[in-house]
């Protein structure tokens, strides 16, 4: 917690007081509702979302300054803005605040089901444990603190695919496992989670349940040789990114405009092909493609550096940018692989509470029912129109000689 506050204090200086005040207000208000009983606990999601959306709206206002709260002293503090503006990183902080509050509410709901107010609910078995237990009935399940003891010798012999599968099982077990009430009510652990230096600036996003479990029992999957290989791949990606920016400088052209002062023929040809679109529509398409490729490469290096730093500390954060950009064939797959941790956050805290796939199926059924009703109404109107048309034809079909039908 102390290291995190020092790191964030260096980034924001005195303006750190504003996000810290929002986080403190949320902590004590949610904690108060948790102590008032089940009826008040049911309001935690509503209050958490209201505070989150309200603070996000306020952070974008230029009127939110320390000078309005502290007068002359606050005006002096506003002059120390730090290296990064606090409102730039505030949306990511709000996601963590919501994760703590909603995980706390789910743990209270789970505890009320078993009628054990102070009981600690251990994480359930991972998929790998279930497979192992199905193969060996004598294997006993162990708590999180001893889940990965005695496995270091075999980690280096696993293939990368098996390590990725084990990471998935590890992450799922720690995210779904509730923590003790003392951990949710620990203000120090709460601040350590919000201002954790490796993941504070860009993520990846880790839920509070997972972070608290890593503080108790650090991850043992990516370590030793696997961790060295991960850092080596990161260094190789950094070198490739530097070469990319040197030879395909689309980002420099986007940020700084045409190269008017350069006389090198190669640079002028590159500018002519992409910026002035002298090559026609194909040049514009290639320029857009390489601009998106640059963004993908940039976030790849940033997110993997943050994750590698967290791995050194024993925190197994989700892997953002999990796949290449050119092997995605749908917007859905592109989003799932791009910001993977944020996608999982949305699924856990928005999609599932709103009904998940069941809610989607209900909406589809309602849409199909409305479509069927419209078709039935159209068929009924068409039948009525046809019957009326037939009666008119029968009435008009009289003999020209005698006038009879």
UniProtKB/TrEMBL annotation:
Residues 120-134 have a biased composition (Basic and acidic residues). The chain crosses the membrane at residues 6-30, 190-215, 227-249, 284-303. It is a multi-pass membrane protein. Residues 365-385 have a biased composition (Low complexity). Keywords: Membrane, Transmembrane, Transmembrane helix. Residues 120-161, 365-393 are annotated as: Disordered. The keyword Transmembrane helix applies. Pfam families: MBOAT (PF03062). It comes from the Eukaryota. It comes from Polarella glacialis. It is found in: Membrane. This is Uncharacterized protein. GO terms for molecular function: acyltransferase activity. One of its GO terms (cellular component) is membrane.
């Amino acid at each position: 917690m102390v290291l995190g506050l020092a790191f964030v204090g260096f980034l924001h200086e005195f303006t750190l007081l504003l996000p810290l005040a929002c986080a403190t207000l949320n902590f004590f208000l949610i904690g108060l509702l948790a102590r008032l009983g089940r009826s008040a606990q049911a309001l935690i999601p509503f209050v958490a979302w209201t505070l989150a959306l309200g603070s996000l709206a306020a952070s974008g206002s230029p009127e939110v300054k320390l000078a309005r709260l502290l007068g002359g002293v606050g005006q002096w503090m506003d002059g120390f803005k730090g290296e990064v503006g606090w409102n730039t990183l505030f949306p990511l902080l709000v996601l963590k605040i919501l994760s703590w509050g909603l995980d706390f509410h789910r743990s209270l709901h789970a505890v009320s089901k078993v009628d054990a107010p102070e009981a600690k609910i251990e994480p359930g078995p991972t998929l790998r444990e279930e497979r192992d237990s199905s193969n060996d009935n004598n294997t006993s399940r162990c708590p999180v603190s001893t889940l990965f003891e005695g496995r270091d010798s075999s980690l280096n012999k696993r293939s990368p695919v098996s390590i990725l599968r084990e990471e998935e099982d590890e992450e799922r077990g720690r995210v779904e496992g509730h923590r003790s009430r003392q951990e949710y009510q620990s203000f120090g652990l709460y601040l350590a989670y919000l201002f954790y230096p490796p993941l504070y600036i860009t993520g990846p996003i880790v839920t509070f349940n997972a972070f608290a479990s890593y503080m108790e029992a650090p991850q043992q999957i990516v370590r030793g040789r696997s961790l060295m290989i991960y850092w080596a791949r990161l260094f190789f990606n950094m070198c490739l990114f530097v070469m990319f920016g040197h030879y395909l400088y689309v980002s420099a052209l986007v940020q700084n405009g045409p190269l008017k002062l350069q006389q090198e023929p190669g640079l002028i040809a590159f500018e002519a092909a992409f910026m002035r679109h002298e090559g026609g529509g194909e040049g514009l398409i290639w320029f857009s493609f390489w601009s998106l490729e640059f963004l993908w490469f940039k976030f790849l290096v940033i997110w993997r550096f943050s994750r590698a730093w967290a791995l050194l500390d024993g925190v197994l954060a989700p892997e953002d940018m999990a796949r290449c950009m050119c092997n995605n064939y749908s917007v859905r797959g592109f989003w799932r692989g791009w910001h993977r941790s944020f996608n999982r956050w949305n699924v856990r805290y928005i999609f599932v509470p709103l009904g998940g796939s069941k809610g989607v199926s209900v909406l589809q059924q309602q849409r199909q029912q409305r479509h069927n009703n419209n078709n039935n109404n159209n068929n009924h109107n068409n039948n009525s129109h046809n019957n009326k048309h037939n009666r008119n034809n029968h009435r008009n079909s009289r003999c020209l000689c005698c006038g009879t039908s």
